[in-house]
Amino acid sequence: MPDKAMNKQSNTYTLLYAVGLVLVVGVALSAVYQALRPKQEENIANDTKRQILAAALITPTENQSVADLYKDHIVDSFIVNDRGEEIDAQENAFNVNVSMEVKKPENERLLPVFVCAPDASQPQADLKYILPVYGAGLWGPIWGYIAFNSDGTTIYGAYFAHQGETPGLGAEIEKPAFSDQFKGKDVYADGQFVSIAVVKPGKEPTGSDYVHAISGGTITSQGVQKMLYNSLYPYNAFLKTLQQRN
User: Fold this and answer.
1) For 178-185, what is the mean pLDDT?
2) Which of 33, 52, 110, 149 makes a 20 to 30 Å CA pair with 118?
3) Is the pLDDT of residue 5 over 90?
4) Nearest CA to 101 among 234, 220, 193?
């Protein structure tokens, strides 16, 4: 009888083998991705929690988990609108995509607020209000969190990050030498929201608070200044409500 086995040197065999191999590898990679996805999502969430806490000057020690630290110090979170009113949204504050919200008109944005107790043993004492900011640097997105004192005007702490700014230049926004300048700065002048200027030494404005820009990172520094105003101004009404409580 003639040999019915497929010729392994034929193009048909090579094509079928390649297709089968691709299918097997694809299924295997999909299974691995699905298995690792919960851990990946947990890591992303913990990194966001770390950034929020960093704005309130809280960092985990060697034996502390970020998740536990966040649970201990973030005593509340909610979403407000540009009128300063807490709203009942379909998602919680932690899951709001700030990069999408900043593209919307101010009166349509979901504005997350994270309430932090620096002293976990006194969860209602000396509360800080942490607000996210998002903008554009020289090479990509920049973002961060600004923690306000309960007076609703002065900054308690700040944290900034970036996707692809130049090391040693724009990337310096993530260093404490830059973010520490924001401590105690006031975003109001004569009762009006003015944000914080980011300026070169010798170019300091009068009548409003400022920090010094990154040396050699002019565009990134300008991006931080624009990000702060564009992201924080919609919170003006909310910050005013904090001021009225004091």
Assistant:
1) 97
2) 110
3) no
4) 234
Contact 187, 195 (CB under 8 A): yes
**Within the chain, what is the greatest distance between any pair of CA atoms?**
100
> Rounded to whole angstroms, how far apart are CA atoms 143 and 96?
14
Q: Indicate the pairing of strand 74-80 with strand 155-162.
A: unpaired
pLDDT range class, residue 177, cuts 50, 70, 90? very high
Please give the single-letter amino acid code of residue 47: D
Phi/psi region, residue 207 (left: phi>0; alpha: psi -120 to 50; beta: rest), is left
Return phi, psi of residue 67, to 5°: -60, -45
Cα dihedral: 227, 228, 229, 231 (round 10): 70
The separation between CA 42 and the C-alpha centre of its own chain, rounded to angstroms, equals 16
Joined together, the tokens standing for residue 71 give: 């649970």
Nearest one of 229, 65, 245 to 131, comparing CA atoms: 229
243 or 28: which leads in pLDDT: 243
Q: Which residues make beta-bridge pairs with 133?
A: 144
What is the pairing mode between strands 74-80 and 86-87? antiparallel
Q: Could you tell me the two tokens for 69?
A: 């630290």
Q: What is the mean pLDDT of residues 130-158?
A: 97
Q: What is the pLDDT of residue 1?
A: 45
CA-to-CA distance for 115 and 80, rounded, in angstroms? Answer: 13
Number of residues in the chain = 246
pTM: predicted TM-score of the whole model, two decimal places? 0.84
